[in-house]
Each structure stands twice: as structure tokens, then as C-alpha cells.
Design brief:
Elements: H1 2-37, E1 43-45, H2 51-55, E2 63-64, E3 72-77, E4 91-96, E5 99-101, H3 107-114
Parallel strand pairs: 1-5
Antiparallel strand pairs: 2-3, 3-4
Length: 124
């Protein structure tokens, strides 16, 4: 019985060493992937409108989410908005991100997109 227990402990030790080695390899590969993609990611999530914003009819008409490209957000400012004393025609700004999430995006959808970027630290 003692011989079996000693053999099991030795096997457990070997498995823990193997697990540690595999975890280190996983981290190395994860970091390599991050470097290849670029270390900085910029995501944009447009929050849903608050009830008081809906009541005031301050909609999201000035934000456009091109259906063919989930990395672009277009902000258009109508003619009546102006900076300082200058008046300009319609102004349109294009912003590019690694991913844009519109107000209807769910937490699940967002988590699925960033899950591979998140590393969970193992127990010491």
C-alpha cells in the first residue's frame, strides 16, 4: 500500500510539472499571438440610451454603424451644431476600432470577442 501511495505521489508530481510546463507554453504562445496582432486593442461600446434621453428624443441618429464593417463608427454632426463662432455644413467623422459594439450588443457577445485576450491567473 505504501509503495502504491509513493508511486501515486510521484505520478502526481510528474503531472504537476507537466501541467506547469504546458501553462508556461500556453502563456508564451498567447503573448506571441498578442504581439503579432499588436499589443494594444481599442474596442468601442456604445451604451443603450437612458430612459430620460429617450424622453427628450435625444436619439442616436448622429451615430452610424456600417453593417458591412464592425470596426467603424461614423459620427455626423448636423449643420446647426458649430464650434465657437464658425458655422460649417454637415461634418462627418470616421473612427476605426478593433471592434465596435452597438447599443444592442449583449454582454455575451462582448465577452466572446475579448475572451481570448483575458488571461486567468492560476493558483500559486
Amino acid at each position: 500500500l505504501r509503495a502504491q501511495a509513493a508511486a501515486q505521489e510521484q505520478r502526481l508530481e510528474q503531472q504537476e510539472q507537466r501541467l506547469h510546463g504546458l501553462e508556461m507554453e500556453r502563456r508564451r504562445l498567447h503573448n506571441l499571438i498578442q504581439e503579432l496582432k499588436g499589443n494594444i486593442r481599442v474596442f468601442c461600446r456604445v451604451r443603450p440610451m437612458l430612459p430620460e434621453e429617450e424622453e427628450r428624443k435625444k436619439g442616436l441618429a448622429h451615430l452610424h454603424f456600417p453593417p458591412e464593417d464592425n470596426k467603424v463608427l461614423v459620427l455626423s454632426r448636423p449643420e446647426e451644431s458649430h464650434v465657437g463662432r464658425e458655422r460649417r455644413g454637415d461634418v462627418c467623422y470616421d473612427f476605426s476600432f478593433d471592434r465596435v459594439f452597438p447599443p444592442a450588443a449583449s454582454q455575451q457577445e462582448i465577452f466572446e470577442e475579448i475572451a481570448l485576450l483575458v488571461q486567468v491567473r492560476g493558483e500559486p
